Structures are given as C-alpha cells and as structure tokens.
Amino acid sequence: MPASRLGSAGKESGLMSVLSLPRPYLLFLGDVTDLSYAKTAAGLRDWVPDQCVAEWALPGNPLRLGLPVMNPAEAARAGARALVIGAATMGGALRPAWVPALLEAMEAGLDIISGMHMPLASIPDLKSAAERLGRQLIDVRRPPADLPLGTGRKRTGKRLLTVGTDCALGKKYTALALAQAFTRAGAKATFRATGQTGILIAGGGVPMDAVVSDFLAGAAEALSPDAPADHWDIVEGQGSLFHPSYAGVSLGLLHGSQPDVLVICHEFGRKRIIGLDAHYPIPSIEEVIELNLMHARRVNPDVRVGGISLNTSKLSEDEARRAIETESRRTGLPCADPIRGGAAFDRLVEACLEPEAALAQ
C-alpha cells in the first residue's frame, strides 16, 4: 500500500507541505510488547514499506513486525538514514531505557525521528550527542505556529472523517484505504494526516493531540480548507468521544473538520477502552453514531454516516466475512474491513461517495 497511491496527499503547500525527512528508516520498537503501542512502526511498514530497511527492539522484546532485524550499524550499512521511534507510551514520554539505544543509533550514523510528545532535544544526553556527531533530532509532533481559532464557517469541498469506538483500532488505516479507493474510483481525494504516523506516511499534516485545546477546531479547519466542490478531504480521526483520556481531541477534530460523511471504526471483539486501569466498556456502534452525529450536526446539519469500518485482524477469513455481514444486517449500514477489501469494501466506498447508495440509516 505505497504512499504514491494516497491521492494528492503531501503535495501541497501550507499545513500539508512535504516534510524533509531522511529516508529510509530503521524502525525502533523499544521495549513495547503490544502492537497497539507500536502503531507508528506498523503503519510505516504497511503503507511505505519501501522506506523501511529493518526493525530493531531492545533485548528480550519478542514483538516483531516481519521486517529484517538489524542493529543500527547493520541498518546504516543497508542504507538506512534515520531511526524512527516506532513505539508509543501513554502520555508520549520517551522512556529512559530507550536513550542508550538512540545514542547507539546516532553513533552508527543515523538521525533520530520521533513522534513522541517529549522533544528529543529536551534529553541532555541526546542533545549533546547530536551536536557532537552532527546528527538531526527531528520531532514531527510539533504543530504549526499561529494556528487560528475555529470559526465554524461553511467551507467548500467535501470531507470524510473516520471516528471510532476507541483508540488504536483502525481510523488511520481506514482513512488511508478510503483515500486510495476514492482515487481509484476517479474522485479527487487527499488524505489529511492528524497524527504522527499519518504525517510520516503522507509527508505533512497537523499532530492534533499536540495542539493547545482552544485551537483544535481551528487547526482542523486549516488542515482541510476550502476546496473545489468535487474534491474530498479524507481526514484521519483521533481518539474517541467515549475515551476518558482523549475525547477532547476527538471533539475538536469533529467540529473543525466539518465532515459531510462519517465512517464508524470498530475492532470486532474489543470489550473495554484501552490504556486505562479502570474498566470502561466499549460503546455500541449505535451509541457512537448517535453521539458523533449530534456533535457533527452542530457544524454541518447535512452530515451522514457512510458506513462501518470493522477491524477483523484477529479473525479468520470466514469469521471476518460472517462478522461483517452480521454487523451490516444489524445496523442497516455498509460494513467492511478496508484491509481485507473485496465487494464489501466496494459497497462502503460507494456509499461514502454517493448518498443514494447508502442503506437506510
């Protein structure tokens, strides 16, 4: 799924201007053992595989992405120019245990790219090593300066936003897959990245969770400005209105993106909100539709739900087919796993593009 098929993503000026990043990459997994917290590495592997030389984890970490395993010196000899921190932590802090590995990467000749909230240069050992060795410390989770306040003004063009029952269940992958599919169908479409992984894939965007809360809606408006009437912005969703930690960024993005179409993302079988010690059950798809439509109608009374994106990565092919068919019948909406594709995904794409193609909501 190469980035060259992502419509016109990353080819514009302004907030979507192309980043100048040293490529290709060595993907660093650190000591993260849950793939849900290695989304950046997995996303780069899946969408820009030609830019991923190898993966590397701390000793004892069993997590693997299926790429060649190389240490920094080996990766540098294989052509890597930068190490990307492909793991994440709650709160976005860089773990002290990772610092020696990052120093080793710089000694091997690699720059460091991070999507963490903590700036790389705020760590004295990294800053001094970078200065001594002439290496770059690149933070992609830095929002543009002078972001505007949201206005709610109606903008031209069309917009689709992926929203979800929880975090880390496929909003980015769904948006990327839909951007590809819209382009294949002859529509003009741009993937709009709102998180660090999407920005690394597309080459530009706004890291919404790093924006001061008062400016979230304005940042989303600036990310998806006025466009020709037949142009679609496919906006990568963030968080969930139902997640106690991240609902704020979800709401700001929902208001600012002013979507015409929502696609509801859900992981089949997930029972509880991730990342919290307290038990919060996953909301039903119907609850997610109701709450997101209520807030989206504040800025676009004509917003509609195009369908459901169902993450079936833990199911067999037959199990996934049955789950997709069951959810479609139960909700009366097109339902598909965008990664599996097929006729179900074609129906979801058609329903998003054409209101009359959607089933009765």
Automatic annotation (TrEMBL):
InterPro entries assigned to the protein according to its UniProt record, in alphabetical order: DgcN-like, DgcN-like_C, DgcN-like_N, P-loop_NTPase
Listed transmembrane segments: none
The D-glutamate N-acetyltransferase-like N-terminal domain, residue ranges: 65-143
Residue ranges annotated for the D-glutamate N-acetyltransferase-like C-terminal domain, each copy included: 150-343
Top-level taxonomic group: Bacteria
Name recorded for this polypeptide: EBNA-1 nuclear protein
